[in-house]
């Protein structure tokens, strides 16, 4: 995998950027930072966490690439980590445990994300912000509302919820089911980033057909794929390696956009006032250039899943917004 990323990240790099990873010593942060260390689009990789980041940075610094790595630890060093960053990736937060939903993570992770967003507002307000910390349906609105209140620096074109893992899982599971190369599967996943709010548009996948039973089982597996990992790890963690892979891919896409390439990715962004939704988005130099809001013709099953998710998704969004309002 590392060789694959090295090849991918070395192609046609047109710009150099400082990228900050907040939560870099954690289960997602360490493999994510490893993959980003291979990127020729990054000049400075700044790693932040409350413990252990100097050691992680030292370890990564022995990898032969041109990316300069520096570790920052504790509140007093957060400013230095963030200043001049063009991209900030936030995998910080506690992992999900058996029986725990993403919503159960809310109280702890909401506070963490709110604190980091305040620092971003003051030290790199024009950075592209990539939120991995769960529950993404709520943490992205937390970042948005915090940036509004901390100097009114919120730019909806530069805030993203990383839902790439849902696409990664969909490609993998389709490939397994149909015995085809998952790397060649093109699938769109819309909605949110938890449970019933995730909707893979299987009717759009070219070159394969699905029975209704396959559609329903695949949709469920993609929606709750994270539970497979939590169960398999026997409570020792959640999806970290696959999330790091997905996070690195999306970070690379954002960097390609900054470099002037036209890139389309599914990501959770603001659609209208106080509304967020994941759908195909065109990325460019300033972040979001175009949102493909029109999902076109859906199957009856997809239309039902889309309708059924709306209440849950809006509740998640409002929970994040209410959390920030209570802080001021």
Give your account of this protein's structure:
The chain is α/β, with parallel strands linked by helices. Helix content is 43%, strand content 19%. It folds into two domains: 2-162, NAD(P)-binding Rossmann-like Domain (Rossmann fold), CATH 3.40.50.720; 164-242 and 261-320, Lactate dehydrogenase/glycoside hydrolase, family 4, C-terminal (L-2-Hydroxyisocaproate Dehydrogenase, Chain A, domain 2, Alpha-Beta Complex). The chain is built from eleven helices and eleven strands. It has a six-stranded parallel β-sheet, sandwiched between helices. Helix 2 (29-36) links the parallel strand 1 and strand 2 (42-49). The model is unreliable at 9-14 (pLDDT under 50).
Low-confidence stretches: 9-14
**CATH C-level of the largest domain:** Alpha Beta
**How many distinct beta strands?**
11
Shape: globular
Q: Major beta sheet, specifics?
A: 6 strands, parallel
CATH architecture of the largest domain: 3-Layer(aba) Sandwich
The strand line-up of the biggest sheet is 3-2-1-4-5-6
Structural class: alpha/beta
Helix content: 40-55%
Radius of gyration: 19 Å
**Overall tally of domains:** 2
Report how far apart the termini are.
44 Å
Q: Please state the average pLDDT score.
A: 93
Helices, by number, come to: 11
The CATH topology of the largest domain is Rossmann fold
Order of helix and strand elements from N to C terminus? HEHEHEHEHEHEHEEHHHEEEH
Beta-strand percentage range: 15-25%
**What name goes with the CATH superfamily of the largest domain?**
NAD(P)-binding Rossmann-like Domain
